[in-house]
Design a protein that fits this description.
With about 425 residues, the chain is an alpha/beta fold. The chain is about 55% helix and about 10% strand.
Length: about 425
């Protein structure tokens, strides 16, 4: 739900807002090389935001930059806007806090990153609690600090991030599904796989002192095992034990059979929402390997799945625009944060993977296949992180900006159709 106010807090200045028909590589280059980069939108991008991030449109209309474009947006009722804000909240809750646990496990957070998480937590508390009226939502975030100082010791940073993890898990539990009763069905998964590659699931007991409720393996370890360099585990535990589990793994930097282990730990009572709010619930069902437990998992209808994919693609595009403007002011920041730099240049690949599933249905597609299509159709040629100097980082920012603009234009013909919200009580806004 980023507005120019959010840009101002992130960038330290209030950017100009420009609306133009297209965003070319030249536009991206001029923008990111500017001392005070503007925020550029296209009409197609704004139309997409109206479907999935409507408060962006409200804010731009309030500051008077939409002109005649705003007329069509004002025709949308507040009730529909409220429902779409609720949909946004679901996607963003999953998207923004999915890596908090990994950061704790591997000690990847710095004051800037923690402040970003705190700001997101406050924003979600306000949107869910004050705008949408979700009971108890605002109270979860009211007592968290607004920001931390740059000289805070690592242990204190970890403690704050730990509280963010617990709070975000509580928000996830409190967030309604916003679908009619019985719309999302469920099934019991019994297809447990015993594979020595995923044997770390048994070593977890040596860290936490007990087995979790359920464990899934996902990511490239499943889809592209020959080229993956880590193994991603999604772990579900009893809510009362969540804090103990996260604390047990904090700072452990686990590896198994020479590969880095990534762990995301969730309360077991949020499993349905974690999967339903995923960037592609169907892909999760097809691309995850169950390595422990027999969970009851949601089975979502196709129309829901398509819109969840679309929502995450749009949300990620909006998120990356803020990051690019921030990083353009000092590319050396990304040189000192290679993991974050890697996240930035992977964004077009994440977006295209979702778009490809929207176009042709789910299929296992390797990193090489997705990267090849990005190069051939969208001209995306980033420089590998390990080869970059400051000039190369800036070039990567331009590459990402241009590719994301082209991808958004590419998906514009797909409309935001949320018919399953019709049977849900209207959300006030």
């Amino acid at each position: 739900m980023t507005s120019t106010a959010d840009f101002s807090r992130t960038l330290g200045y209030t950017p100009d807002v420009i609306i133009q028909d297209k965003i070319t590589e030249t536009d991206a280059r001029d923008c990111l090389n500017s001392a005070f980069p503007p925020v550029i939108y296209t009409p197609h991008e704004l139309e997409i935001f109206q479907g999935f991030m409507p408060t962006v449109i409200h804010h731009l209309d309030e500051i008077g930059v939409l002109g005649d474009i705003g007329d069509s947006f004002r025709e949308v009722s507040d009730d529909i806007i409220g429902q779409r804000v609720a949909w946004w909240l679901q996607s963003e809750l999953f998207n923004r806090f999915a890596t908090t646990c990994t950061a704790l496990v591997h000690g990847l957070m710095d004051p800037d990153s923690v402040n970003s998480k705190l700001a997101q937590l406050k924003k979600f508390g306000y949107v869910g609690g004050k705008l949408l009226g979700i009971p108890g939502f605002y109270d979860v975030t009211a007592s968290s600090p607004s920001q931390v100082s740059g000289d805070l010791p690592p242990e204190q940073l970890d403690n704050i991030l730990f509280q963010v993890k617990l709070a975000s898990s509580d928000l996830l539990r409190k967030t309604p599904l916003y679908v009619p009763p019985g719309y999302i069905q469920s099934r019991i998964r019994t297809d447990v796989v015993e594979d020595e590659r995923f044997g770390y699931v048994h070593e977890m007991t040596g860290v936490a002192g007990e087995y979790p409720d359920y464990v899934f393996v996902y990511g490239s370890a499943v889809t592209d095992p020959e080229k993956c360099n880590d193994t991603d585990y999604m772990v579900f535990v009893d809510r009362e034990r969540l804090g103990d589990w996260v604390m047990a793994f904090r700072g452990t930097h686990p590896t198994f059979k020479g590969k880095k282990v990534e762990i995301n730990i969730y309360p077991a009572d949020t499993l349905e929402k974690v999967i339903a709010f995923e960037h592609d619930p169907r892909e999760f069902a097809e691309q995850t390997i169950l390595v422990y437990g027999n969970p009851e998992v949601p089975v979502v209808p196709e129309e829901y799945n398509r819109m969840r994919i679309y929502s995450h693609v749009v949300s990620r595009c909006k998120q990356i625009k803020t990051i690019l403007l921030w990083a353009a002011g000092d590319p050396d920041i990304l040189l000192s944060k290679p993991n974050f730099h890697d996240f930035v240049i992977k964004t077009p690949r994440f977006m295209l993977r979702g778009i490809w599933n929207l176009e042709d249905g789910y299929a296992v597609r390797t990193k090489d296949e997705i990267s090849g299509r990005l190069t051939d159709e969208f001209g995306y040629r980033p420089i590998p992180v390990e080869q970059c100097d400051a000039a190369d980082v800036r070039e990567n920012l331009i590459q990402v900006y241009t590719a994301c603009a082209r991808l958004i234009e590419y998906i514009h013909p797909i409309k935001a159709e949320l018919p399953f919200l019709e049977g849900v009580p209207l959300v006030p806004f």
